[in-house]
Amino acid sequence: MERNQRLEMKGISKSFHGIPANQDISFCIESGEILGLLGENGAGKTTLMNILYGLYQPDAGEIRINGTPVRIHNPVESIFHGIGMVHQHFMLIQNHSVLENIALSYKDTPFFFPKLKIREKIETFSKSFDFNMDLTKKIWQLSAGEQQRVEIIKALLNGADLLILDEPTSVLTPQEIKELISILKGMKAKGHMIIFISHKLDEIMDICDRVLVLQKGRIAGSALTRDTDKTSLARMMVGRDVVFNIKREKIERGRQILSVEHLDVMGDKGIPALKDISFDVFENEIFGVAGVSGNGQRELAEAVTGIRAVKSGKIRINDQDITNTSPRHIYDLGVSHVPEERIRFGIAPGLFLYDNAILKQHHLKKFSQRYFLKYKEVKHHTKTLMNDFNVSAHSINSQIRNLSGGNIQKLILGREISEKPQLLVASHPTYGLDVGATEFMRNHLLMLRKTGSAVLLFSEDLEEIFELCDRIAVIFDGEFMAILDSDDQRLCDIGLMMAGSERI
Ligand SMILES: Nc1ncnc2c1ncn2[C@@H]1O[C@H](COP(=O)(O)OP(=O)(O)O)[C@@H](O)[C@H]1O
Ligand SMILES: [Mg+2]
């Protein structure tokens, strides 16, 4: 099939309930080009791409392919026009195999679907892009990176000339990111067009030819990557200078806040998730747990915050035994939690923004009097939170489900860290946040450290771990491979430890 040479979006506008998400956006992309799409959470990136993919109809503007205006009413039509999209949240059927998932979406799948024929097709494709994939595995058995590859194969098999990837690297491990980047570079060499949405400026600089920056639904600027740098891109996006390398000052740590001894915890599948874990976290300390996700991080955070039962071992806060007590009891002792799956567990989607801003805190004196909420205080608190965390929403009376994913995150983070905790358990706190919010979040964690809180930080982002943590534990398969001071030279081998091949 001949590749499309040029795709253009012209004067695109789109509003939701009268609130503009995209305003008069025009850009084009040509064969063999990788275009980066940058913008703060809520800037309108996903909306714009959903329009291109036929999920939304624009209020104004048009799409042209090789100069000819086309109307794309739904994803089936976008596939017909050679457009494929990998969403932020994958759209695969968990209980089906890789092969079945691909066959289901394959546009030429015959009525009686001959697995052999499709299998051959997939294998040819996998070879030419250097994928390695077991087609019989069920989706739930795959890592995020593997699921993403299934989505990419689906799009390629359907003849996508243009592939849209919405924040594809935010769910991947460093190794998987490398693999994805090489796949994308291979596609570029074959003449595909790629639109790549990311908050990670290093990635954008590495793989994109050109960058388009959105701000509050409008184009704030565009640049060739070879003519620009991270600092100017960040300024274009946020409208001010962003500090990339935060300085962590030296502070003496205080007394012990959290103590974990010989902890054993079971995972969801009935297999031990944590084996004999012991460590302490002190006042004025950020204790980081580094590792590839799925090695027990989630279970550790859940055990400490009381959401998951402990099989054996002891957890103490301020010398008080909290093993297998209730989450509410632990919260009242001053333990806050920024959970991994914030959107699923951190909000009540149908409630208003201001209700969500004080979830779990309704009973606090400052928000309630007997049985009544003090709405004035609640709303004032919500406004401050939204201001500090730069949450963009039409009003505090909006339902939270209408906010973009990044903005929901910011609100939850703000809520959890606004009550100054004794211990903050933070799971991937900057995951999915834009550069401005990431900077704010990291500074906030350092501020908590400075003012005497203890922080237990889980992150897959090694840069973040090294920048923030006083001590670093490396977790693999439910065990700590090492606990080291952040300036320990042996941390050069952190990659090996994360892969389980070295123990200190
Ligand atoms: N289905 C929808 N209903 C109402 N508002 C929406 C919907 N989708 C997006 N929005 C709003 O449009 C704006 C842009 O969101 P989005 O395109 O998701 O931003 P981004 O992907 O850049 O983070 C946000 O203010 C968001 O609240
Ligand atoms: Mg988005």
Overall description:
With 504 residues, the chain is of the alpha/beta class. The longest helix has 16 residues, at 174-189. It folds into three domains: 6-238, Rossmann fold (3-Layer(aba) Sandwich); 255-334 and 420-494, P-loop containing nucleotide triphosphate hydrolases (Rossmann fold), CATH 3.40.50; 347-418, no CATH class. It has 17 helices and 22 strands. The mean pLDDT is 87. The radius of gyration is 24 Å and the shape is globular. Bound molecules: adenosine-5'-diphosphate and magnesium ion.
| Small molecules bound in the structure, each named once | adenosine-5'-diphosphate, magnesium ion
Q: Provide mean pLDDT, rounded.
A: 87
Q: Give a short account of the largest sheet.
A: 6 strands, mixed
DSSP strand tally: 22
What is the CATH homologous superfamily assignment of the largest domain?
P-loop containing nucleotide triphosphate hydrolases
Sequence of strands across the biggest β-sheet: 6-7-8-3-9-10
What's the total helix number? Answer: 17
CATH class descriptor name of the largest domain = Alpha Beta
> What proportion of the residues is helical, as a percent range?
25-40%
